[in-house]
Amino acid sequence: MILPYSETESFLNNTLQKLEQKGYAFAKLKLVNIQKKNNYLNAELHFEYGQQRQLNEIVVKFDESSKKNSFPDGHLKQINRKYGNNTFNQDVVRKIQKDFEKFGFVNQIKTPEILFTKDTTKVYVYLEKRKSNTFDGFIGFANNNKDKLTFNGYLDLILENTIKAGEQFSLYWKSDGNDQKTFKASIDLPYIFKIPIGLKAQIQIFKQDSIFQNTKTAIDLGYFIDYKTRIYLGYQSTESSDIQNTNNSSISDYTNSFVTTNLEFTRFDDKNTTFPKKTSISATIGLGTRKTNELSTSVGTSKQVNISINAMHNFYLNPKNCININYQNYFLKTETYIINELNRFGGTKSIRGFAENSLQANLMTAIISEYRYIISSELYVHSILDYGYYEDKTTENKGNLIGIGIGMGLQTKNGVLKLTLSNGLNEGQNIKFQNTLVSINYNIEF
Question: CA-CA distance, 341 to 215, in Å (whole number)?
Fold first, then answer.
């Protein structure tokens, strides 16, 4: 092989890098018997490969302020299973570091370190607890139909890795100030029995005035492609009570049950403290039946299909400017429709500018968008521009909805304070400033 003298060092470094990729971390190269002949230098290239290294173990170490290692055993076992006995090189170390960034309840406090002994190769990952538990609440006020001031609010509590199993528990309650109440509790258990299988369950209760109450339960068994990509197979059922016992074609006691399949994907940007969640997708399809009360005019059993999609992504134009797009879709297909089985939407987590859960539909699709200008790591302002289309077969209503407004977010020592002003418009309607909704929300992190 003939090389220009100026490329010799680059050639040696590239050769060492190729050997390192094959697991020879301590390989050495040496040029010997160097002789000058005419205008050339002749040399022999000697290799010392050393022992080919394989990764034997990944070890987690917590910072000294932690009393004990709180990283879940099931999660660590899966990572060790993924990389154990692989040919060791720096690419493997980078992949391990990237995998630990997927866990929302820990931070890496420094780059992983490597321990070589005569017979083993270990990677040490250094972690600290992240403030992943949140308590979220808001107080809102607006004028009702009688031009009287009304208040509404909610709480949203999320606890993560509290029992050191990587679990997530959530508790949600919401009241709109007009006798409409929602309660939901759920638990998500990943890597049960230390295998890539997860279990999640939830109960949800929704009450509309003194008209009806729905109680929904669901349980799902999932397979983890990786920690942030999951496929679930589940069962859910709803029992609805017609409180006024009208039992007509519009509203009736009913029960339903569905077999569901669900795909979930989440991606975090570990270096972004303002908006750490970059992408999320959840898509569910269910096949089932509904049975109505014998006294109902729509008595009988109906086959049903429901589809639900929620997707979100942050598009960064540059470090200061970001567009957040949230796509929501719901579809229910059945032979006959009743009011108390329809999807409820509108409000702070749906099309803004409308009262919480004031809209109903068997078909709803919406694009929820914000243009965000990041003033600093602690402060950002944003626009609100939401669009939705809905169809309600019980009333034969359909149309377009628009939500517009502005908002801001302030990162404090203990959480994020959010303020929004929004106004909702039906198709062909003009803006009425007296219908503007003001929401104050404080998300506490601990």
Answer: 11
pLDDT block averages, 10 residues each, the chain of length 446: 86 92 93 87 90 96 74 95 95 95 90 94 95 83 66 85 94 81 95 95 93 96 95 98 78 95 92 89 98 68 96 96 98 94 93 92 98 96 98 95 97 93 91 89 89
Token representation of residue 233: 């197979």
Q: How many CA atoms lie within 13 A of 125 on its CB side?
A: 24
Question: Among candidates 57, 70, 136, which has minimal Cα distance to 103?
Answer: 70
Question: How many angstroms separate the CA atoms of 273 and 374, rounded?
Answer: 12
Strand partners, 398: 391
Domains in the chain, ordered, with CATH? Answer: 5-48 (no CATH), 57-129 (3.10.20), 134-445 (2.40.160.50)
Q: What sign does the CA torsion over 113, 118, 121, 124 have?
A: negative
3-state helix, strand, coil in the chain (%, to 5): 10, 60, 30
Cα 118 to Cα 53: distance, rounded to the nearest angstrom: 10
Is 361 within 8 Å of 350 (Cβ atoms)? no
- In the numeric block, which tokens belong to residue 316? 């960064």
| Euclidean distance between CA atoms 49 and 20, whole angstroms | 10
Rounded Cα distance, 425 and 404, in Å = 8
For residue 90, give the 3-state DSSP assignment: helix
| Helix and strand counts by DSSP (H, E) for the chain | 3, 24
- What letter does residue 192 receive in the DSSP assignment? G
Phi, psi of 99, rounded to the nearest 5 degrees? -65, -40
β 106-108/121-129 pair status: antiparallel
Largest CA distance in the chain: 107
